[in-house]
Every structure is written in structure tokens, then in C-alpha cells.
Design brief:
This protein has 485 residues and is mainly alpha-helical. It has a domain of 190 residues. It is built from 16 helices and three strands. A three-stranded antiparallel sheet has the order 2-1-3, covered by helices on one side. The radius of gyration is 23 Å and the shape is globular.
């Protein structure tokens, strides 16, 4: 089976090299297929998770062969204010790579950590170049096919819940059981064709968010709202079977951010209304972030598994109960744990990266890397936490400018920017207190592609404005053209 899987991998790799403009779609297909293939292979080897990265590498090679530069510095020719914090971030990565190797003596841990930081940078540059050359068509093409393919893949979660025991279904490794401390019930977490419930849940949330992006791209009406509610209910409903109830909160953050931006940018709300809504959003964000903590996970099987769907609905509804102390527990406390355990400069790259346990690492994180702030502090130290915060603030400020300009010149482009920005906000909320899913390479690729998409919007707007000007000149020129004698 292993030889067959590697042989099948060569096809999308060669296609990605030959036609790099279709690389995003090839990565999508590979990401869906790689986990079932892993489950069919004796021993379920971990390197299957890197198949999507191999295909993406083929896409990058195909771009380089055609003279396309993937140097992230090319973006700073247009956004120079990001050059300084990015340079400091890159230098910090190099220093922490040496720190990791000297501490653990294991190059695989260092390389795995390095990959999670470097891959998104290359991916941003790649998606930036793709849209720069191919236009906004590639953005909508990827999003449409993602929603379709993931909706089909997520139905496998329901098949597993329904009692189908196919080998391609279920979690890789020990099956997790969730103990709901609110209802004192045990729930089984289903993964479908994905390798883990956490991954399936993230894709359910993302597919629902992207579906709303497509539905509302041409306007917001009562019919579209009903359609969006039906599609979102279907996708999130499948996601609830994973037992990862935080997707409800993340999706709520996405919807809230999207409609707040719609009110401010498209409906031209007054500054007072904008400040009030934004303030409410900030308060809601911290309140919701406190709820993203998953229930205690255990592998006990000494109690009967409760499989009624209503149990999963009740389990998800309980997430809205206010528990403010959990934000401190998962947002601030991990930073303290990382500092107390490894000092000002942290433990180095890979110390808190998902998958390091397969190479003899992972024990160093000891809960400090469960939250995003803790993971950054653990791997990059306190200086890295400040540099990442500085870089994130500058990027978000620039994306805000992009959204405002886009909404003034093109409503459709403005809605696209608002939806993609809201998607990033929802993931910031998720990452800040739960990092499990963000160690997946395909998830890292999607998030970085979205950032690259947003960076290309100003160029797309310039082309659209020029096209309108040309069309206007062509329309009015016959009126002023002198008649021939």
C-alpha cells in the first residue's frame, strides 16, 4: 500500500510542476486523500501528513521554472512598512532553530518547527504571485472547490457516526472520548476520513465560512440569508459530531466580524456606531475566547458511549456558558508556564509543534503550547511574542486599509476582503487558546493563502479601475470622433 500511495503522489506532483496555476486545487485533493491512504497502510506512518506539502513544493517548483519569484521580500516592495518586523522575525527564527538543536540534539524536531514558520511565508508569496498573474478568478476557484470537496468529505463523519466501520473512517491512533463535565456524559469523537476530529472540525468551520463568502459575494438579501443558514447548519451540524464544540464559537466570531465590517464599510455607519460595534466585538471576542477550551479528553471506555445526536447539540450549546477564568487559564497562564520552564528565550523551534512527539519530542511543551500565546513564547521566547504581536498589528492595520479602499471601489471585492479578514479573525480567536489543529500543514497553507489573497487586492482593484476607465473611453469616444470627409 505504501508503494501505491507514493506512486499516486507522483501524479499531482508532476501536474503541479507542469501547471502550477492549478496547484491549490491539487493540494486540496491531496489533503483529502492522504489521510484515508494512511489509514489503509499498515502502521499508519506519520509522513503521509506531508504529502500535501510535497505537492505544494511541486507547485512552487513549477512557478520557479517559469521565472516566478517566491521570495517573500517581493511583497515588501509594495508594503515596505512590514520589512523591519519581518526581518526581525526571520532573524529570530534562525536563532531559535539553533536554540532548539542545541537543546534537544534532534534535527527532526528543529526542522519540523522550522517548517511551520517558513512554509506559511513561502505560501503567502506563492498565492500572491498566483493571483497577481491569474487574477481574482483563482481565489473564487479555490474557494468554490474547497466548499464542494470538503462538504463531500465531511459526510464521512456522519457515516462513521451512523455505524459504518470502514477502514478509511475513524481517528488515526487511539480513539478519543470526550467527557462533558457539564452534562456528565461521555461522547465519542468522530473523524470520518480525516485523521483526527480536530482536523475535521476545523474544515467544517472553514467550509461553512467560505460558503457564506460565496453566497454573500453578490449581495445580502433575505433569500441569500436563508440559503446561508441552511448551508451553514448542514456543515456545522456535521462538525458537531467531531465533539469539537469550539467550532460553533469560531463560526460565531466569523459571522459577527463579517456583518460588523459590512455595516461599517458598506453601509457607511457613523463613527459613533462603528466605535460602539467594534467595542462590543472586542468584548465579545474575549468572552468567546474564554469558551474555546475543550472539555477534558480521556481515553476511558468503562462507560457506555452515548451516540444520540442531541447529546452533541447539548454539548455544543454548553460552550456559551460564561467561564471567564478559562481565558486566563488558556491565554495568559501558558505564557507564564513557558517562561517559568524555559526562561526568557524559550526552548526553540519544534518544542511545542504538533507532531514533534513522533520524533522523540513534544514532552517539553507540557501544556504550555496548548494556547497560541504559550506556543509562541515556548518556541520563540518572550522577544518572539513581542515581535509576532508587532508584526500582527501592522498586518491587520494594513488589511483594514485594504478593506476600506476595496469597499469604496468595488462592493464585491469589499465583501471578499471582509469575509477573508473575518475568517482570519476567527482563527486568531481559535489559535490563541487551542493550537492543536494549527500544526496541520494543509491548514497552515490555507491560512497563508488567505493572507496572500488579501495582499493582492490593491492590484486587483487597480486593474478593475483601469478596465472601467478604458471601457468608459471606448464608450464615449465615438461621440467625439470627427466624421470622415
Amino acid at each position: 500500500m505504501l508503494e501505491l500511495a507514493i506512486s499516486l503522489l507522483t501524479l499531482p506532483v508532476f501536474l503541479a510542476i507542469a501547471e502550477w496555476r492549478f496547484g491549490l486545487l491539487l493540494c486540496l485533493v491531496t489533503a483529502i486523500v492522504q489521510d484515508p491512504l494512511r489509514k489503509l497502510t499498515p502502521g499508519q506512518p506519520v509522513f503521509y501528513v506531508a504529502f500535501v506539502a510535497v505537492v505544494f513544493a511541486g507547485m512552487c517548483l513549477g512557478a520557479l521554472v517559469r521565472g516566478v519569484s517566491l521570495n517573500p521580500n517581493i511583497i515588501f516592495k509594495r508594503y515596505r512598512h512590514l520589512a523591519t518586523p519581518f526581518s526581525m522575525f526571520f532573524l529570530l527564527i534562525i536563532v531559535q532553530a539553533f536554540n532548539s538543536y542545541l537543546r534537544f540534539g534532534n534535527p527532526m524536531i528543529t526542522l519540523l518547527g522550522l517548517l511551520t514558520y517558513v512554509l506559511p511565508l513561502i505560501s503567502i508569496a506563492c498565492s500572491y504571485q498566483l493571483v497577481f498573474r491569474q487574477g481574482g478568478l483563482r481565489i473564487y476557484q479555490f474557494i468554490k472547490w474547497y466548499v464542494v470537496c470538503m462538504a463531500l468529505a465531511l459526510t464521512s463523519v456522519y457515516l462513521e457516526y451512523s455505524g459504518y466501520h470502514w477502514q478509511v473512517l475513524g481517528t488515526v491512533g487511539p480513539r478519543l472520548v470526550i467527557f462533558d463535565t457539564v452534562s456528565n456524559q461521555i461522547l465519542q469523537a468522530y473523524a470520518g476520513v480525516f485523521r483526527a476530529p480536530e482536523i475535521a472540525a476545523w474544515h467544517a468551520m472553514t467550509a461553512a465560512s467560505f460558503a457564506l463568502l460565496l453566497i454573500f459575494s453578490r449581495g445580502i438579501s433575505f433569500t441569500r440569508i436563508l440559503t446561508a443558514m441552511a448551508v451553514a447548519t448542514f456543515l456545522i451540524g456535521l462538525g458537531l459530531l467531531t465533539g469539537r464544540r469550539k467550532i460553533v464559537i469560531e463560526f460565531a466570531v466569523f459571522i459577527s466580524a463579517y456583518f460588523i465590517l459590512w455595516i461599517i464599510l458598506e453601509r457607511h455607519a457613523s463613527n459613533l456606531v462603528g466605535i460602539a460595534v467594534t467595542g462590543a466585538a472586542v468584548i465579545g471576542y474575549f468572552w468567546l475566547a474564554a469558551e474555546l477550551r475543550e472539555d477534558t479528553v480521556t481515553t476511558r471506555y468503562d462507560r457506555e458511549l452515548l451516540t444520540s445526536y442531541s447529546r452533541y447539540v447539548a454539548h455544543s450549546e454548553a460552550v456559551f456558558h460564561a467561564v471567564p477564568s478559562r481565558f486566563v487559564e488558556l491565554g495568559i497562564a501558558p505564557v507564564t508556564w513557558a517562561y517559568d520552564g524555559f526562561g526568557l528565550f524559550g526552548a526553540g523551534l519544534g518544542a511545542g509543534t504538533q507532531g514533534a512527539q513522533h520524533f522523540g519530542g513534544g514532552g517539553a511543551k507540557a501544556g504550555a503550547a496548548e494556547g497560541g500565546l504559550g506556543k509562541i513564547t515556548l518556541e520563540l521566547g518572550v522577544p518572539g511574542l513581542f515581535v509576532m504581536g508587532w508584526l500582527a498589528i501592522l498586518v491587520l492595520r494594513y488589511l483594514w486599509k485594504i478593506m476600506r479602499i476595496a469597499s469604496q471601489h468595488s462592493r464585491r471585492m469589499g465583501r471578499l476582503c471582509s469575509a477573508l479578514f473575518s475568517f482570519l479573525v476567527a482563527n486568531i480567536a481559535g489559535f490563541s487558546v487551542a493550537t492543536q489543529a494549527y500544526g496541520d500543514l494543509f491548514i497552515l497553507l490555507i491560512l497563508s493563502w488567505v493572507v496572500g489573497f488579501l495582499f493582492t487586492v490593491p492590484m486587483l482593484l487597480e486593474r478593475e479601475v483601469r478596465a472601467r476607465q478604458v471601457a468608459t473611453v471606448e464608450r464615449i469616444s465615438p461621440v467625439f470622433r470627427p466624421r470622415s470627409a
